[in-house]
Amino acid sequence: MLTVWPAMAPPAGADGQSPNPFITFLPFILMIVVVWFLLIRPQRKKQKDHQAMLTQLAKGDRVVTSAGIIGTIVGIKENIVVLKVSEETKMEFLKSSIAGKVDMTGGSSAS
Hints:
alpha+beta; 5-stranded antiparallel beta sheet
């Protein structure tokens, strides 16, 4: 029983003090930095690019909505975009539901 007692003692430095708390939390800090650069930062950049695209919308632009509807913008209000989806059909969408612009070859420029 006496041989187990030293193994259960907390690790100590050479002079008997506890380890530096900064060194103890360094792996957690590094994990937070990695998550920031791999997940949060790219998502914010994508969101900023999408917001810039929404502010540059103009009449005549061909766009695709998040529901997959493709149309030409015939009217823009503050938060509403009116799309012409066929010769006789106009639909209103929230500006935030526009996923991206469509180039003339039919592909979407939304990433």
